[in-house]
Amino acid sequence: MFKKIFALIFLGAAIFMSGCSDSADVNDSPKTAQASPVAKNIPNFSATTIKGEPVTNEIFAAKKITVVNIWGTFCPPCIAEMPELGEMARSMPADAQIIGLVCDASENSPQIQKALQITQEAGANFTNIVPDAQLMNFMAGVEAVPTTIFVNSKGEVVGRAIIGADVEGYKDELEKLLKQ
């Protein structure tokens, strides 16, 4: 009986961790990929932020490059990098912005309150979106969080995806993309 309980606990932990980055510490080296784990274009969407404000894919049109951080309220590396992301957002060049996609939140879910608490405590006051069905489909290829992608003003995914917490990597990729 004890072996069965242990196996179930181990299986549950493995399933829980599969949704998070495989790096246990935000200082671990992230994985990078040349191809994005998501589709090549952001779909048309109509969602809300964690503060309940409406948002559509038009959010990308205002800036040359948008850093899109896909994260979850259950993910320790995601939460740990929030203060740095808040700092990054405050020091963004005029032609760039950062937004978050809260992968485990949905309309009226308790994760929205948790995301609000996490971002407020971290001083991460950038836009965080509660995905609608179109954004959930868009994120279907994401195997671990945080995953950060870069989107141009046309809603096209550009540059390389960064899997794992790596704010310096995000800044480097953003700088490279802004120069193009």
Question: Could you walk me through the main structural features you see in this protein, from its secondary elements to its overall organization?
Answer:
This protein is of the alpha+beta class. An eight-stranded mixed sheet has the order 1-8-7-4-5-6-2-3. Residues 1-19 and 21-34 have low confidence and may be disordered. The N and C termini lie far apart (61 Å). The radius of gyration is 16 Å and the shape is globular. It has one domain (2-179): Glutaredoxin (3-Layer(aba) Sandwich), CATH 3.40.30.10. Helix 2 crosses helix 3. The protein contains five helices and eight strands. The longest helix is centred in the first third of the chain and has 17 residues, at 2-18. The protein has helices at 2-18, 76-90, 110-122, 133-138, 167-179; strands spanning 31-33, 46-49, 54-56, 65-71, 96-102, 127-130, 147-152, 157-163.
